[in-house]
Amino acid sequence: MQPKSNVLPFNAATRSKRLLAQKPTRLTSVCYKASDKAHTSVDWYTPPAIVKALGGKRGFDLDPCTPEDPSRLPAPTARRMIPPSQDGLATPWPKQAFVWMNPPYGKGI
C-alpha cells in the first residue's frame, strides 16, 4: 500500500480545494508606470514575489512562455521553462501540470 499523497491532482474539481489549501499571503501592490521612453521589448517579467505567492509551496510545473534567455528573469518561474525557440504552445504539456504563463505582449506583436 502506497502512502497517501498530499498533492491534489489539478483539475476543475480540485481547483477550489487547491486554492483553499494555500495559506493566505499578503501581496504588496505592484504597478507598472508608463515610461517617458518607448519600451522596445515585448518581454515583461513578473516580480518573483507574485510568482511565489501564486504558486504556493509546490510552485509551478511549467512556463511555456519563458524568454529565450531565462537568465534575464529575476527568478525561475517554473520547474520546466520553454523558450520561444521550442514553441511552448505547440509542445505537449503534462496532463496535470500547474502552469504559469506571462506571454510577451506589446505593440510589436
Describe this structure in words.
There is one protein chain. The protein has 109 residues and is mainly α. It has a domain at 16-23 and 42-109. The chain has helices at residues 12-21, 48-55; strands at 62-63, 80-81. The protein has a two-stranded parallel sheet. The chain is globular, with a radius of gyration of 16 Å. GO terms for molecular function: DNA binding; site-specific DNA-methyltransferase (adenine-specific) activity. Keywords: Methyltransferase, Transferase. This is Adenine methyltransferase. Pfam families: Dam. It comes from Neisseria gonorrhoeae.
Strand content: under 5%
SSE order in H/E notation?
Answer: HHEE
What is the residue-mean pLDDT, rounded to a whole number?
74
As a whole number of angstroms, the C-alpha radius of gyration is: 16 Å
| Fraction of residues in helix | 10-25%
- Overall SS class: mainly alpha
Topology overview:
Blueprint (H helix, E strand, L loop, with lengths): L11 H10 L26 H8 L6 E2 L16 E2 L28
Parallel strand pairs: 1-2
Summarize the structure.
By secondary structure, the protein is mainly α. The protein has 2 helices and 2 strands.
List keywords for this structure.
109 residues, mainly alpha
